[in-house]
Hints:
Layout: E1 6-16, E2 23-27, H1 37-40, H2 45-58, E3 64-68, H3 74-85, H4 92-98, H5 102-111, E4 117-120, H6 126-140, E5 145-153, E6 169-177, E7 186-191, E8 199-200, H7 204-215, E9 223-228, E10 231-237
Parallel strand pairs: 3-4, 3-5, 8-9
Antiparallel strand pairs: 1-2, 1-6, 1-7, 5-6, 7-10, 9-10
Helix pairs in contact: 2-5, 3-4
Amino acid sequence: xxxxxxxxxxxxxxxxxxxxxxxxxxxxxxxxxxxxxxxxxxxxxxxxxxxxxxxxxxxxxxxxxxxxxxxxxxxxxxxxxxxxxxxxxxxxxxxxxxxxxxxxxxxxxxxxxxxxxxxxxxxxxxxxxxxxxxxxxxxxxxxxxxxxxxxxxxxxxxxxxxxxxxxxxxxxxxxxxxxxxxxxxxxxxxxxxxxxxxxxxxxxxxxxxxxxxxxxxxxxxxxxxxxxxxxxxxxxxxxxxxx
Length: 243
């Protein structure tokens, strides 16, 4: 099937202050209490941010899940490596939460979903790559919905020289569908042309911020165009999301 547009049925987002990690929530984003205590206790800042954001838009359904992150839980991974170098033992429980698909795994456990999930890491283009994966899944199964989650936290201090992030963390969750809903927050379109006003390969944190601005736009007529790895994207807010 040809998919002409992918619609946003629901959205949630959270950002963390770069200095003290204070969260600011947007859209339908709930606080960490949405995560059952048994799972919440095991998660660090990155995991709680990503899982709470994802559960805010897909707490009870069994939709397919696409998760994307440039770094994953790099803070936990760094702590584990440091402990091993110091001669300590690797914690199996901590290691299981440091792998890249830990976040979607926890989400599926909480939701009781067996639909499966995909975890993507594509460098600075991880968010765009995740959207491409979600689009491909909807082409294959247009009657389904996709729970899409992007998340990244700031790198540990030792790696800060390699970081381009300005915030302490960002997570964005979207419910995506190929069938036009009665109401929508916006739509993604893959364009063939390459207009002059397109952004070139915007980083995931920058792109997430722009999408959040458009999704929360009161005017409802905002849009953004960008290119990423050969794909030309348009995202238009709800007021413009008509065929």
